[in-house]
Amino acid sequence: MLWRRTTGWPTWDWTNPFDELDRMRREMDLLAEGLTRGLFREPVAGVFPLMNVTEDNDNYYVRAELPGINADDLDISVTGDTLTVSGERKIPDEDEKARYHRREREAGKFSRVIALPSQVDTAKVQAHYADGIISLILPKVETAKPKLIPVKTS
Amino acid sequence: MTDKETKALQPKAKTEVTQPAESTRPGLVFTPDVDIFETDQEIMLLADMPGVKSQALNIDLHENILTLDGEVEPPESADERDLLREYRTGKFHRQFTLSQAIDQEKIEASMKDGVLRLRLPKVKAARPHKITVKAK
């Protein structure tokens, strides 16, 4: 493959016949992705936790669903325009005699870095955890806030 | 019984209910992740329902069908604009059929940090009765 790509010679290479299938599958995936992209984007970052970021004129708001986490097990830090949320979700062991029927909830560590569109006032960042949702309010720095520019008429 | 080593959590999109029993109201409906386990005395159910306040949760047990319903208020205020949206919010709904008789009077439910903990005690008759085999 590499040989062919670097030299551009015709196909006397050892191409695996599945490569072509692979390529087709990738293209189909891209096509399907394009179709579903319209309304809602499925996880893009591929890093836990999934986040929703919104803004108004003064603040950025970052939210993530993290049910059943101790606030002490959450680690949030902000530097300039980068937000880091890491922590661990623990699911305590139940009665050892318990027989499980379903086990869908997962425990584990996570860490995610997210870049915000502009600098934030790190001293005034607020974090709040309620009902299994972490919400952060990150005030924008003055220079990042939209300014109304009055138009003068002469 | 579980491996003690902590693994890294992987993101997964919430599963939408494909056919909500009654969709009289608009909005998205998701299936909460649950753990269900059983001891001799009770059945325990733990469900992840982030964003559901205890007063917005509805638990119903009727003819062995256990129904969980959780309403979620959208957390965003009206003047916020989306920059990145990786998860959607909506209500939670899930039903289970219980195979054993449950003592309805003693059901306990608690909601903490978006996790429901539901204790369903079995009625006396449904508890396993140990039968000792007598040797002659």
Distance between the ends of chain B:
38 Å
Question: Could you give the order of strands across the largest sheet of chain A?
Answer: 1-2-8-7
* Oligomerization category of the chains in this entry: heterodimer
Shape of chain A: flat
Which fold name corresponds to the CATH topology of the domain at 29-74 and 86-123 in chain B? Immunoglobulin-like
Question: Level of helix content of chain B?
Answer: under 10%
Q: At CATH's second level, what is the architecture of the largest domain in chain A?
A: Sandwich
Radius of gyration of chain A: 24 Å
H/E element string of chain B? EEEEEEEEE
Order of helices and strands of chain A: HHEEEEEEEE
Number of strands of chain B: 9
Number of helices of chain A: 2
CATH classification, class level of the largest domain in chain A: Mainly Beta
